[in-house]
């Protein structure tokens, strides 16, 4: 869920930044070791250098992973690939790069989604918020502390930066000693930049002109949908290509020798908006192809690893270099540039990119010293018991079976919406839709803690009730069913290859509770929903339902039909996860007998798969 991945204060920045904040990357001469390593690019004694080199290091989608720790498992992070997570390890790689190449030859940039995604993020946004409570000054955000220590030069805004509202984002911005860039994040009234669009860094070259590096930041237009409640009427988000065409020439006019973009946007040209927005969600490849004057782009948003990727610009024929370093601190992108001085101006003569894996290095001891206490606070918080459960509830089969752990989500959503409906809307049939966010989620028999519930509902979504007709509901469920690959009748179903058709991922796949239906995976897309009934009767095309749904989906996330434009019957700023915690706390016990019911199933030509 873009992320993935939702109080408010009028936030118009008193002095909207329209120019660049010029800063110096360092003036110290290269160390002897660095000079020796880079002899081909170093100066000849007594003669100004004609060649030079520098690097840009990049992270993205850190999602508040500081340490190599899984708060949901209450244990060090572990996956099958042997990855580590967290900026504490990445910081060690960055120190190594600076030591090898020279402190003054390395810039550090992030491509967004910094302050949401872990229990650590939630704690400092809601439990002990950085904005403060009761007139008390709030704490410093751990990600601001870590990234300041790592000496970031700039970071793009990610869409998840807006999940906790503008006030939290502005407070985080104020705590950072580097700019948050968003050239396509505009004030809704003035259409001027609400955040700094770009910054210019100088690479000092002894005896020669500085190398000027312009860093332009672009974010995702989907914020207008996904965080509509937080940004509507306050900010607008035009397309990446449109704004890059405006600012790249400006950076060149400022004398930048190198223009580097940090985009919170993938590179395949796809969108999950449906028809809700005129802009492309994953547009980095389009920016590279359609906007001349760009040397390289740090890519984010899609949580994939692309060590090096080249796009040829359509106007100039020049190659633009792109790299995406996965997410959570799994990887660090390294862009290396070679330049030559021609008539007093630096020209890029070579560039390459790669990704480095931090899983073999130790965590930075200074970050551990700075943030260990914050980490321990969050560990204590997530291990707080809120009740008990009568049996183990697992999400392992939730992507192909109707399992009780998903019915728990549906129960809380439906009960909450029902309690908040008007008298007229309360007479309508009520259903719930929700996605299986985590196949590894498990609520154990016995004591239930906050981390058990947070591991099931990993996003900070809030809750809506929207009205759909029976015909629209069927369209909605057909759209969800494209998640499955077609498996002809008589063919064995392999769950390892059944799902994620059409690049439709688990967080995008909604199941419904309150109606009964079959999903016939032997049929082609668009013809899979069979036997759709409500309380035993076929759902009529004009029958009106109230649908309990999270704000991401309600505002158009993943491109579901009808839901974004549907009438609102209920809305709340309370996170669904917290509503689930409150449910267990109030009842004291989580018992599937109170909510579990099998109301949907997979079939092949009418025969149940399981």
From TrEMBL:
Tell whether Ribonucleoprotein is among the UniProt keywords.
no
State its location(s).
Cell envelope
Q: Which Pfam families match?
A: 5_nucleotid_C, Metallophos
Residue ranges, compositional bias (Low complexity): 31-41
Span of the signal peptide: 1-35
Keywords from UniProt, A to Z, are: Hydrolase, Metal-binding, Multifunctional enzyme, Nucleotide-binding, Signal
What name does the UniProt record give this protein?
Answer: 5'-nucleotidase C-terminal domain-containing protein
Matching entries from InterPro entries are given as:
5'-Nucleotdase_C (IPR008334), 5'-Nucleotdase_C_sf (IPR036907), 5'-Nucleotdase_CS (IPR006146), 5_nucleotidase/apyrase (IPR006179), Calcineurin-like_PHP (IPR004843), CpdB_N (IPR041827), Metallo-depent_PP-like (IPR029052), TAT_signal (IPR006311)
Catalytic reaction list? a nucleoside 2',3'-cyclic phosphate + H2O = a nucleoside 3'-phosphate + H(+); a ribonucleoside 3'-phosphate + H2O = a ribonucleoside + phosphate
Annotated region Disordered: the residues are 31-50
| Domain Calcineurin-like phosphoesterase span(s) in chain numbering | 55-304
The entry assigns this protein to a family as follows: Belongs to the 5'-nucleotidase family.
């Amino acid at each position: 869920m873009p992320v993935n991945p939702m109080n408010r204060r009028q936030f118009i920045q008193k002095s909207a930044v329209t120019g660049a904040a010029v800063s110096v990357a360092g003036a110290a001469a290269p160390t002897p070791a660095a000079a020796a390593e880079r002899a081909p690019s170093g100066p000849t004694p007594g003669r100004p250098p004609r060649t030079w080199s520098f690097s840009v290091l990049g992270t993205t989608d850190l999602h508040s992973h500081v340490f190599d720790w899984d708060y949901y498992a209450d244990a060090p992070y572990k996956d099958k690939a042997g990855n580590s997570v967290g900026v504490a390890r990445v910081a060690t790689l960055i120190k190594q790069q600076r030591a090898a190449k020279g402190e003054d030859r390395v810039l550090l940039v992030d491509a967004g989604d910094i302050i949401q995604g872990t229990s650590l993020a939630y704690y400092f946004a809601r439990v002990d918020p950085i904005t403060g409570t009761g007139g008390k000054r709030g704490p410093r955000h751990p990600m601001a502390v870590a990234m300041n220590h790592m000496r970031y030069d700039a970071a793009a805004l990610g869409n998840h930066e807006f999940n906790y509202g503008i006030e939290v984002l502005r407070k985080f911005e104020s705590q950072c000693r580097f700019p948050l860039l968003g050239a396509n994040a505009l004030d809704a009234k003035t259409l001027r930049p609400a955040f700094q669009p770009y910054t210019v860094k100088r690479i000092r070259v002894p005896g020669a002109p500085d190398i000027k590096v312009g860093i332009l930041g672009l974010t995702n237009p989907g914020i207008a949908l996904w965080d509509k409640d937080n940004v509507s009427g306050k900010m607008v988000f035009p397309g990446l290509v449109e704004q890059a065409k405006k600012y790249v020439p400006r950076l060149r006019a400022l004398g930048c020798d190198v223009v580097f973009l940090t985009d919170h946007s993938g590179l395949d040209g796809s969108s999950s908006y449906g028809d809700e927005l005129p802009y492309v969600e994953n547009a980095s490849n389009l920016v590279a192809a359609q906007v001349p004057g760009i040397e390289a782009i740090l890519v984010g948003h899609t949580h994939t690893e692309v060590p090096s990727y080249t796009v040829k610009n359509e106007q100039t024929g020049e190659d633009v270099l792109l790299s995406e370093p996965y997410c959570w601190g799994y990887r660090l992108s390294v862009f290396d540039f070679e330049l030559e001085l021609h008539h007093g101006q630096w020209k890029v003569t070579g560039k390459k990119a790669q990704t480095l894996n931090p899983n073999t290095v130790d965590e930075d001891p200074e970050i551990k010293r700075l943030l260990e206490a914050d980490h321990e606070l969050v560990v204590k918080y997530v291990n707080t018991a809120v009740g008990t459960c009568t049996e183990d509830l697992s999400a392992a089969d939730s992507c192909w079976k109707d399992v009780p752990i998903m019915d728990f989500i549906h129960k809380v959503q439906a009960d909450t919406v029902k309690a908040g409906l008007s008298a007229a809307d309360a007479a309508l049939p009520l259903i719930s839709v929700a996605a299986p966010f985590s196949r590894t989620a498990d609520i154990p028999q016995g004591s239930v803690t906050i981390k058990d519930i947070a591991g099931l509902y990993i996003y900070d979504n809030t809750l809506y009730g929207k009205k759909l007709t029976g015909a629209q509901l069927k369209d909605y469920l057909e759209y969800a069913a494209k998640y499955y690959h077609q498996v002809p009748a008589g063919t064995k179903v392999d769950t390892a290859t059944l799902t994620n058709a059409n690049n439709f991922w688990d967080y995008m796949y909604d199941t419904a509770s309150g109606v009964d239906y079959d999903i016939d995976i032997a049929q082609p897309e668009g013809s899979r929903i069979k036997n759709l009934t409500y309380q035993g009767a076929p759902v009529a095309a004009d029958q009106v339902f109230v649908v309990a749904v999270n704000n991401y989906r309600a505002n158009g996330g993943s491109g579901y039909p009808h839901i974004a434009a549907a009438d609102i019957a209920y809305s709340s700023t309370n996170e669904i996860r917290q509503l689930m915690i409150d449910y267990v706390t109030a009842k004291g016990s989580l018992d599937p007998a109170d909510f579990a019911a099998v109301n949907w199933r997979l079939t092949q030509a009418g025969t149940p798969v399981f």
